[in-house]
Design brief:
alpha/beta, 7-stranded mixed beta sheet
Length: 433
């Protein structure tokens, strides 16, 4: 629940969530409780004592912790995606303001003036925006519980709005114009049809010549066999993932078209603009590479990518730089690729120190049995071994011919990539569940 610039809370009292009884004494407690309400659909008032207080001027965002009891963490009913959001209001000023912001997000909302008319599209709309002027009538109709319900007001909001928002199952109470940026982002996400659930997999070489770019390309191809996947080239000094895949001449945008991004990047625009082959999209460098990437462009691309694709594989530069560190901090998984020489393992240890502990770390080794054992490399680096592969004959020739690293389906590179992809996609599916 997010509360934006409301008045004093008049909802102190005892509430019941399933079999739990909760005392509510402040607005802060109520905002947390409404978040609970969204997850359970079982919150109701047991008794009520009004009290007054000063106006609430700050924006509050409260979420339920991952370790919360199971009755809090029970998932809500998944929302059904329609092409348009639903706006319920009879306030002409509020309607005009929301339509203006929706235009900036590239969507046209369906507008209903009465609560009864809104019920017809309530369950199917991508997102539901309830004007403060219609929150009470909507609450009286006891609409079915769903995700993506928000209450908006174009003037300072009174205590009764929070009571009505609670009854409507709203996630957010927001006041305009203070929450304009948030609303544009919400509407943009609703147009994209998903809310940022893709997994980000960073691939980084532990030493020079480890083959991280080739493995990242093969991994992206393996993942794309099962789910929409984007391969992002973030290594300015690398060979170029589009060239490795044989897509350097494919039509579509490159990094030079995105470094000037100043607003929110639409997931639909990104997915429809990058070079692609089947379910695999590729974002790489133009022929004349820029000197670097602005951090804000990297953030916007990754934000749009996880809304547009199930898996995002990023080829990360081995040498430390702000862009690489930013990407690694946003990764769900990081795959470190190393050869099996003593010098390579020593260099990989220094690269491994860059990887945030929050990311799930994996090791892939490449080389013949004459080197250090792959299991021993994993023990030294403190990383689980995801795959071990031999050197592949004819790989350079396949790349030079534009056939890509997956030319030989039985080669060690493809087998290692598909084995790794099965593990990573398994984690993705578990996270989504």
């Amino acid at each position: 629940m997010a509360a934006a610039r409301g008045g004093a809370l008049g909802l102190a009292g005892r509430y019941r969530v399933g079999t739990e009884s909760l005392d509510i004494r402040s607005r802060t407690e109520l905002t947390a409780t409404i978040t609970v309400h969204q997850h359970t659909g079982a919150l109701r008032t047991a008794d009520h004592e009004a009290f007054t207080g000063g106006p609430h001027r700050s924006v509050v965002h409260r979420t339920v912790a991952a370790g919360a009891p199971s009755w809090i963490r029970r998932p809500t009913i998944g929302r059904m995606i329609e092409t348009r959001p639903l706006l319920l209001t009879d306030d002409d000023l509020l309607r005009a303001e929301v339509i203006r912001l929706a235009a900036a997000a590239g969507v046209v909302p369906q507008v209903a003036r009465e609560a009864g008319a809104a019920l017809a599209s309530w369950a199917a709309a991508s997102v539901v925006l309830v004007g403060a002027d219609r929150a009470a009538p909507m609450a009286a109709m006891r609409p079915p519980r769903r995700a993506g319900v928000h209450v908006l007001g174009a003037r300072p909001l009174g205590d009764e709005v929070f009571r009505d928002a609670l009854a409507c199952g709203a996630e957010t109470v927001a006041e305009l114009p203070a929450s304009e940026t948030w609303l544009v982002e919400l509407l943009t996400d609703s147009a994209d049809g998903r809310g940022g659930t893709g997994q980000v997999v960073g691939v980084v070489g532990g030493c020079g010549g480890a083959g991280a770019t080739s493995f990242g390309a093969a991994l992206a191809e393996a993942c794309a066999r099962h789910a929409p996947t984007l391969l992002v080239d973030a290594d300015l000094q690398g060979p170029g993932v589009d060239r490795v895949l044989g897509l350097e001449s494919a039509p579509g945008i490159r990094w030079d078209a995105l470094v000037q991004v100043t607003g929110r990047l639409s997931a639909r625009s990104l997915r429809g603009s990058v070079p692609s082959r089947g379910r695999l999209g590729v974002l790489s460098w133009p022929a004349d590479r820029p000197r670097g990437l602005p951090l804000f462009a990297v953030r916007e691309v990754l934000s749009a990518a996880v809304r547009a694709y199930d898996v995002v594989v990023v080829d990360v530069a081995r040498h430390p730089d702000p862009v690489g560190d930013e990407i690694l901090a946003r990764c769900d998984h990081v795959v470190l690729v190393s050869t099996l020489t003593v010098a390579a393992v020593a260099a990989a240890g220094r690269t491994a120190a860059r990887i945030p502990q929050a990311a799930r770390r994996h090791l892939v080794t490449r080389g013949n049995a004459a080197g250090v054992a792959p299991e021993e490399v994993g023990r030294v680096l403190g990383m689980p071994l995801l795959a071990a592969m031999r050197d592949q004959r004819g790989l350079d020739e396949a790349v030079d011919l534009g056939a890509g690293p997956s030319r030989s389906a039985r080669g060690p590179l493809v087998r290692a990539a598909r084995s790794a992809g099965a593990v990573l996609l398994g984690d993705t599916q578990e996270s989504a569940a």
